[in-house]
Amino acid sequence: MTEPLDPEMFDPLCPSDLVPIRVGDKWAGMIIQCLEGGPRRFSELRVPLRNVTPKVLTQSLRALERDGFIVRTVHAGPARHVEYELTSLGRSLLDLLDAARSWAEAHLDELIDAREAASPAKRTS
Length: 125
Prior knowledge:
The chain is α+β, with helices and mostly antiparallel strands.
């Protein structure tokens, strides 16, 4: 049995769209990180990804499966359930995502300043 996912795994104020490398959609990198420790059920993924609607999480999981990053396994029996797990291709992204996250953390202030400077409310004509 894998350890439960930390509900505070992702800072709700973290601007995840500032990470320079994105795999799939906005949530894919976070999903991949959640699966790093082993297979997870949908309900387990919902704990740290509480800001993602079930519909969007399902769409992201399907896209990751389609692209070969995760595998979806249906466990039959009286307690039927579905688990998602990283494939070797998905695991190969972990170091890349860690490096991108580290870079973004090191440059977070600069990234936020650039975003704010480029926002329409800050522009003068």
